[in-house]
User: Which sequence fits this backbone?
């Protein structure tokens, strides 16, 4: 089931590229922007995440945690983060449970890949309530960062 504005964050557990566990408890009390993306080292994903990297002051100034989530391994994400000089957390949902819980995965993606993270953005407030939700049909599109900024200002 896809999360919508007003939904509570589902229970989740994943590991970031620094091998640290991320759960509801570890982000409790912090507004968090979850950015699901299909695959590291691809053109549109790199464009999206570099836009966030270059605008990180906006998120830091608003005390918003940013977590990029894909079904890549945490080792792949560590290399990607290093090469792109990303200044926020990248987290692996290799087992595809978090994508499923957020309703953010492709049944069938390119080259027969199944369960890949669907490009989407979810902003949760410090109480774990979704304040912005956008799930894109096309992996070639990026989230509406102007609308996300408006939602952040309203927190």
Assistant:
């Amino acid at each position: 089931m896809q999360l919508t504005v007003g939904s509570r964050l589902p229970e989740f557990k994943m590991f970031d590229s620094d091998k640290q566990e991320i759960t509801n408890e570890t982000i409790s009390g912090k507004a968090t922007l979850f950015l699901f993306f299909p695959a590291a080292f691809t053109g549109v994903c790199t464009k999206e995440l570099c836009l966030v990297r270059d605008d990180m002051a906006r998120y830091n100034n608003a005390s918003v945690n940013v977590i990029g989530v894909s079904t890549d391994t945490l080792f792949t994400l560590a290399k990607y983060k290093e090469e792109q000089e990303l200044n926020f957390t990248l987290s692996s949902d290799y087992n595809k449970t978090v994508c499923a819980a957020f309703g953010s995965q492709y049944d069938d993606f390119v080259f027969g890949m199944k369960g890949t993270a669907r490009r989407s953005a979810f902003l949760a407030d410090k109480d774990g309530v979704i304040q912005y939700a956008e799930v894109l049909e096309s992996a070639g599109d990026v989230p509406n960062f102007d609308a996300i900024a408006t939602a952040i200002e309203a927190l």
In short: The beta strands are 13-16, 21-23, 31-36, 64-70, 89-92, 120-124, 130-135. The chain has a mean pLDDT of 94. The domain at 13-153 is CATH 3.40.30.10 (Glutaredoxin). The chain has one domain: 13-153.
